[in-house]
Amino acid sequence: MLDLHHIFAMQKKALFFLLALCALGWGFTSYPTVFAGIAIGACFGTYNFWILVRRMDKFDRSISEGRKVASLGSALRFGSGIAAVAIAITLPEYFHLISAVIGLMVPYVFLFIGVFVSSVRNKGN
Fold it and tell me: Which GO terms describe its cellular component (predicted)?
């Protein structure tokens, strides 16, 4: 099974490709707000996943050292999602709201795809 740092590194690469596709879609289609919404949502979603990876490291260290377990940062990630939606609501001429919400879920879709590909590769070995 892949560790979280490896998954996060793969997600960053996928995010850069997604942002490049969003830039092309923003520049060359008649739906620039949709692509801008996906891009901002994906950036905030990746930030949320980074927070989760960082908090999981602290959680693992706390458990291994026998200390009290801290929170996994759900409030911070929830606040970040609210910020992405607030930007899309405040600036509807630049960002499409539904696309921003879909963009927030992109890192989790990448996560499921990565786990699926990893399990298929390991099954063949």
Answer: plasma membrane
